[in-house]
Structure prediction request, 287 residues.
Amino acid sequence: MKHKMIISSLSLVLTFSSYQTTMAQSKVDKLPTILDGSSHFPYDIELKPWNETNKIIPTGEIFEVIDRKTGLIFQVQRRAGSQHADVQPLTETDTAIMKAIYNGKWSWKRRAIYIKKGKHMIAASMHGMPHGAGALSNNFPGHFCIHLPGSTVHTTDKEDPTHQLMILKAAGKLDDYLNNATSEEMAEVFTHAVNQEDFTILRKTIIEDINKKKLDRLVLIDPVKVQQEHEPTSILKVEFPVKVHYMTGSGQERKKTNVTVYRDSITARWYIDINELFHKLGMNDKA
Prediction:
């Protein structure tokens, strides 16, 4: 994802509660969250690049991860990773808290998070799928990855665009990004939002007030493939070819179609024409 990130801080007010949990059969009786306490602490949310954060949480360092949506907090240890952080939950309790963030099921879905280490509260992104090696006694079969601006995937040496999108969300920079996004970038954000089941981001790409039940029927959109010779339909409307997986009354179906991105004037921001997409998929009903 191409974007212009200004390395700056955003003041947010978060609520802090003590990290007190008990463990019983890999379940946490009381989930620790920074959003349900009685004392408010201001934090400066930092948008730090990977090369700086890499020095704050070097290999072997223990720090806290805070989920942006739920406020749930757990401890991790960085175990490896040169292009991004490979980390493990510190204890079985931390593993249970992380699994609760993912509604009890491990997932590759990306989530906006904060890295809390000392005075630092850094915007980041994680996925929730154990993979590879793991050395701690924590009931977590492997490690998971945390990404920062400028971090890359080991297999491709490229940034993961979905992780970068979640970092913008964590940093409070998503609206700025969308307001200045190209038509192609808006189509990519829409695609990632559907695939990550992130309805907060998805709703920011459309104007219409579509209920979540209907949006839920969009299961998966294959990554937007833009040909080199691709010509915009007009300066106010651009179509991108996609393959959409969606739910109907008879089950899941797939269809090759176009996602239309439009704007009202050459100075206005781009939006997804969601009603046109629903029409192409035969999803004109209100549900």
